[in-house]
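A brief tutorial aside. Many learners find it easier to grasp structure tokens once they have seen a single protein encoded end to end. The record that follows does exactly this for Nascent polypeptide-associated complex subunit beta. Read the sequence first, then the structure, and try to relate runs of similar tokens to stretches of the chain.
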Amino acid sequence: MNREKLMKMANTVRTGGKGTVRRKKKAVHKTNTTDDKKLQSTLKRIGVNSIPGIEEVNIFKDDVVIQFTNPKVQASIAANTWVVSGSPQTKKLEDILPQILSQLGPDNMDNLRKLAEQLKKQPPGEGNASATIQEEDDDDVPDLVAGETFEAAAAEEKVPAAAAAAPAAPAAAPAAPAASS
């Protein structure tokens, strides 16, 4: 670039007279509204329809329930897409259980009974039920000793099992030559 062009560009960004500081470039911040607009335009392309009259949406994940109160629900059956937008609240399953009992269907009631049985079997001093189940499943995993790997420990377990499964071979007696008459 030539010097004249640079001087001309420098003068355009100067806010005061000669010797003053040049203006700072204002940073353009990306807001959530631009993200929402992009999302809404994408959803419009998919062809989602608004579903009115939904007061509450509960999403069950592990021992936690993500609850949306008065959400905006949109769906596109053809694209197998459901959109739940609103402010979520994360709650424990035990806290929300009395409120949702009337909303559960027969298949969910069976799952609820199983969960209740697990909670009854669990001693009061213990944490959650999933930790107990995980401890019971640990029997299949070999214990490691310092300096060993899982592969070596697994190979050692297979060798004694294979030896016990193989039938013991009878002691070999020297073969006597068949006498011919």
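Self-check: The chain is about 40% helix and 15% strand. If you spotted this yourself, you are ready for the next section.
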